[in-house]
What we know:
Elements: H1 8-15, E1 28-33, H2 39-54, E2 59-64, H3 67-84, E3 88-92, E4 97-102, E5 105-113, H4 120-123, E6 130-134, H5 141-150, E7 157-162, H6 170-176, E8 184-189, H7 199-206, H8 211-217, E9 238-239, E10 248-254, E11 261-269, E12 272-281, H9 283-286, H10 292-303, E13 310-313, H11 318-326, E14 331-333, H12 338-351, E15 354-357, H13 361-367, H14 388-401, H15 413-416
Helix pairs in contact: 1-2, 2-3, 10-11, 12-14
Amino acid sequence: MEGMTFSPKQRRVLTWWRPGSPDRDCQAIICDGAVRSGKTLCTGLSFFCWAMCCFHRQNFALCGRTIQSVRRNVLSELEPLLEGMGFRCVRQLSRNMIQVRLGGRKNDFYLFGGKDESSAALIQGVTLAGALLDEAALMPRSFVEQAAARCSVEGSRLWFSCNPESPEHWFYQEWIQKAGEKNILRLPFTMADNPGLSAGTRERYAGMFEGVFYRRFVLGEWVAAEGLVYDFFDRSYVRPAPEGEMEQWRISCDYGTANPTSMGLWGRKDGVWYRVAEYYYDARAARRQKTDEEYADELERLAGGRNIQEVVADPSAASFCETLRRRGWRVRKADNRVLSGIRLTARLLRSGRIVICEGCANAVREFSLYRWEPDGRGEDRVCKQNDHAMDEIRYFAATVAAREERPGGIYAGVVERRSR
Length: 420
């Protein structure tokens, strides 16, 4: 850790469990707030130091939404620091476990993923001296409560870090709002709490988000999603298609039977993807459903003889995808994660990396109508209306455009930090 600087709030996280700390009697710590605020690193570092100073031959849990996200978000940066401090870390990949030694002490740290309700069974039965839950607000309540219940060794404690969600979210209601009665130290973080961020970097991150996502991931507030999803989008974002040849072509597709089917033709030029044309068919309005073969014909007409590298398709449209493959199209299942996809789409639109062109009237119409569900029951939900071009554009943004960013660029999907 030579040369590292910690902010006052980070130092409080690092020392809250130490003798003489005014927070020492707390049973847990919650570090929530803005992205890139330094909460994950200092929480993980403090957790390992506490475990190795206070216990010997005990089991601990390192929890994320998936085991892969624990390795990526927590351990990849933390292990070199620990080894530089004299810790010896030995990974046992087949057991999803890390054995850590420091002096004469040895403890085992097991990795768990809490991505759905079935995950609670994975941690059930183990006896723990402590647990760190990164991305806690992305985990189901059953998993978090099961992890808490497994910490039954004398002196055990819980460690949480997360980005904000809705104020109706169960974690905010049951843990943050009740921090006082549960004897929890809650520390809200902003980017100013990370001394490793320059002013320019903070400004860059602040420019990545709009509306509710700005308030959550930049200001660190627990606020509800309401109103238009893309509240910044107006006619200024609609431009003519560029002249000249495109470097690459793709088609994105959201398939519906009774619901509308939307397809977008995308061309890439000078690092920008342009949605130059569209096909949109509402079977209910037309009072006639089309077959997979008819939609495949429409896709071919939209392609117009261009060299289409691939079709990015709704992953649930299995029969339509198979029809396209039989006709010789290369089909790629779209990344269908909604919230991270919306954030990516908004950022790419704002930065000019994807452009909606004149002639895409149905996409422009849906941008003006696509709204958050007013009663999301504690979760962010979009209204399932006027969302077909929105889904198809989101598929393209998350599956193609965002993944082409140059090395060292920022991939907004890491904000939510979800892995399959």
